[in-house]
Specification:
By secondary structure, this protein is α+β, with helices and mostly antiparallel strands. The chain has 5 helices and 10 strands, in the order E-H-E-E-H-E-E-E-H-E-E-E-H-H-E. The chain starts with a strand and ends with a strand.
Amino acid sequence: MPVVKLVLEYDGTAYVGWQVQPNGPSIQAEVERALATLHKAPRRVTAAGRTDAGVHARGQVASFREDRPLPVKAYVMGMNAVLPPDVAVRAASLEPDGFDARRSARGKRYRYVIENLPTRAPLTRLQAWQHFHPLELANVREAAAHLVGRHDFAAFQAADCACEHAVREVRRLEVLGEAGGRIEVVIEATAFVKHMVRNIVGTLVEVGRGRRAPGSMLALLARGDRTEAGPTAPPQGLFLEEVFY
């Protein structure tokens, strides 16, 4: 049975996250509602990752099995005609039987945006963490370099994460931009534990403010204690940028 693959972009501001939940609107519910309209019957999709409330995506991937798929163009044009304005299908394709948006993924790239500003900027407050204290980016970049490679990221894992372990391989961790302007933290890894990117960013910001040394990342990784790392960065700065297969 062929599998339909959808590449989605969305602004997560108004949603409780990707996953259907009883306490508010979700991206998954909107996507499944649009598919039900096209197919005249319910459809259940699987996503590459469950983004949290307020988190955005430029390259989320969802998939579902379909014995009689519509033309690929229908999934793009047809779904976009019925999806809300803050959710869109960027691309669609037919994949062979066995493809699964989550299980077939070989890695993901996230981008976290920080606006290191002297005052708040209302027009971008929902797509960036507006942080007003000056950051020393040389120290941030030095700290980030310690996190590249295969490590146990338990220190950066949410307390309620259901993963069996926190060993992950970070392939890329770059800090782009300049202090006093737009800063982007780009992280690619084989997989992520819950809140891993936001917890890493929150800790790197503490390094940038001089509250912890760049070399302290090594001790954090070794001890694996979430209470010793920095705060969880707010969700609005986080974008799921691409899923690799």
